[in-house]
Amino acid sequence: MKKTKNLKKNYEFKIVLTKGKYCSGKYIEAFFIKNNLKINKIGIAIGKSQGIAVKRNYFKRLIREAYRLNEEKIEIGNSIVFLVKKKVNNDEINFQNVQNDIIGILQKIGQV
Questions:
Q1: Tens of pLDDT along 34-77?
Q2: Which of 71, 79, 68 is CA-nearest to residue 30?
Q3: Residue 86 near residue 47 (C-beta atoms within 8 A)
Q4: How many alpha carbons fall within 13 Å on the CB side of residue 2?
Q5: Residue 44's beta-bridge partner residues?
Q6: How far apart are CA 28 and CA 104, in angstroms?
Q7: Contact (CB, 8 A) for 69 and 99
Q8: Among residues of the chain, what percentage have pLDDT more than 90?
């Protein structure tokens, strides 16, 4: 059963990015904060410096799929924003790297 909704509003992203805790992997950065709900909320933000729209959407799909595959292991009641690091070479990013990064980040923050 899906226990995740998307962050859509700008103010929702701002709350997580300003008040949330930070954790980083090799390719992905994450901010998280408790939301006191019975669902998780996930947001994905990728800047224009990462490439053209096709590339940015590809990165979003990779992050979304890696999160979906590990969703059952994650505790509920959090808002999480994932960002792709700016200094990363776009050719190095593939699904396996993103999935390992997300698992590592979730382990660091104690959600897995």
A1: 998 899 999 999 989 888 999 999 999 999 999 999 888 888 88
A2: 79
A3: yes
A4: 9
A5: 82
A6: 10
A7: yes
A8: 64
Residue with tokens 């980083």: 24
For 73, the token pair is: 């292991």
Question: What CA–CA distance (Å, rounded) separates 106 from 21?
Answer: 12
Q: At 108, which amino acid appears?
A: K
The pair of three-digit structure tokens given for residue 99, joined into one six-digit string: 């999935």
Catalogue all structural domains in the chain, each as residue range(s) with its CATH number.
4-108 (3.30.230.10)
How many Cα atoms within 13 Å fall on the side-chain side of residue 16? 27
Coil, helix or strand for 112? coil
